[in-house]
Amino acid sequence: MKGDAQGARCGHPGRSRQPVPDVSVAFLGSIALERTLPCLAEPGKIIVVGLPSRSLAEVLPYLATLPNAIAYTPQPPSLTLRRNPGLITLQSERVSITQVTEAAEGLQLLAALTEAINATWEHRAELVAVTGRRRAPRPLDVWALLPQTNCGRCGEATCIAFAFSLLQQRRELADCDVLPKDEGFADRRTALQAMIG
Question: Terminus-to-terminus CA distance in the chain, angstroms?
Fold first, then answer.
């Protein structure tokens, strides 16, 4: 026999137990792939929808400090990050990533996002959490979230013209009748509402 039990039985002093060092526990275990949707803004690409293993509400104010954050609203919590290409939208119980090539790439992106969330959480003491609405949209930020069909039904000749009109408050999101008709644009609508109010 080996170990403490043998030493105790033979009359020898047992080994002293070493303290276990503090191990940091990750904020998020994983983001599971829930489904994919066609990406209407980029034919042939998909939108990946993921379910985090726990609510992201507590970490979103810290993620909103990232340089690629383009829109954040505290209630209900929603954050949109720019990726090249596409966007990442995070809500308390849901994540979506646009312009993904295939499901396998989506799984890799969800795993990388999980790591980024955990790294941000681990360094949260060094960050100043965003507590208010963050809005600094540019026309191209708005345009990236629009359907980009240039259909003209909103009254503007192109989607980029519509983006300028939205920022100048000459048009409203409701003027775009493509956004509410397709489930694939649900995350874009949320991001646009957070961005322009």
Answer: 70
